[in-house]
From TrEMBL:
GO molecular function: gamma-aminobutyric acid:sodium:chloride symporter activity; metal ion binding
Alphabetic keyword roster: Membrane, Metal-binding, Sodium, Symport, Transmembrane, Transmembrane helix, Transport
Protein name: Transporter
Protein family per UniProt: Belongs to the sodium:neurotransmitter symporter (SNF) (TC 2.A.22) family.
Compartment(s) of residence: Membrane
């Protein structure tokens, strides 16, 4: 039996190789929208000019946020609620992230169902 107040350390998995993490992060970031919608957005919003602005925003905003989120989670080795809950003022960020994840998963399932349906229909 453990002494009062002490907690059993939790075991969490870690990445075995750097390339494992790199491919997992790429799979997280690159989705159907990048392949399907991005060329349409480039065409509708000015082609090369839109591409320059998009790459600039990705490098200056998107990459630092992904690095922050990933390094913060790896540093604490816990889930999103426990990680952002370490600082009580940031608990709202964790709740907002969970709400965004829920909404994204809800509509993304519908898009994947459409893609599956049209893929099956294309063979008949």
């Amino acid at each position: 039996m453990s002494p009062a107040g002490s907690q059993k350390p939790s075991w969490r998995q870690s990445w075995g190789k750097p390339f494992d993490f790199l491919f997992a992060a790429a799979g997280y970031c690159i989705g159907l929208g990048n392949v399907w919608r991005f060329p349409y957005l480039c065409f509708e919003n000015g082609g090369g000019a839109f591409l320059i602005a998009y790459i600039l925003c990705t490098v200056l905003v998107g990459v630092p946020i992904i690095i922050l989120e990933t390094s913060f989670g790896q540093c604490f080795r816990s889930g999103i609620m426990k990680t952002w809950g370490k600082v009580p003022i940031f608990k709202g960020i964790a709740i907002a992230c969970l709400v965004c994840i829920f909404h994204t998963n809800t509509y993304y399932i519908v898009v994947l169902a459409w893609v599956s349906k049209y893929l099956v229909s294309s063979f008949s």
